Request: fold
Amino acid sequence: MRLVLASLFLTLGVGQAAAHCGAGSTTVLSCTTGRGTKQLDVCITGDRVTYRFGPHTAPDLRLSASIKEVAHQPWPGIGRAIWESTTFRNGAFSYEVYGAYDKIDQTSNGGVTVTEQGREIAALTCDSGTAELGLFALSDAKQAAGRCWDADAQKWGAC
Reply:
């Protein structure tokens, strides 16, 4: 069932945002914010996950982490929405990127919440209709890299 859902969601929202992760990369989330003025992308390339945010041609911020080490909260398997979140860290700053698909409304959304030392300093949402999701892509990549999710402990560990 999860494979069927993943296949369906990978075909949803494919549009202008699709090209931003590049050839050979897998999209986790891609969308615009600020009425199209900024691009938000989370892409998997090889054994790395990259967060990019800013103008389409020259992002203001780019962070990269190994698939094994990046903080990732997978969908717990219940609820109206299928959602996941991934957190990138840069010194005192954390960038929690989330994507969700509402199973009833059949809409995708996403965004990023920025915190500094645990205090929220910004929250941006994807422009309506621009969210391209690769739900389960990062969870699947972590499993392929030998990491397994422990739902009781709420953390990834060795399989």
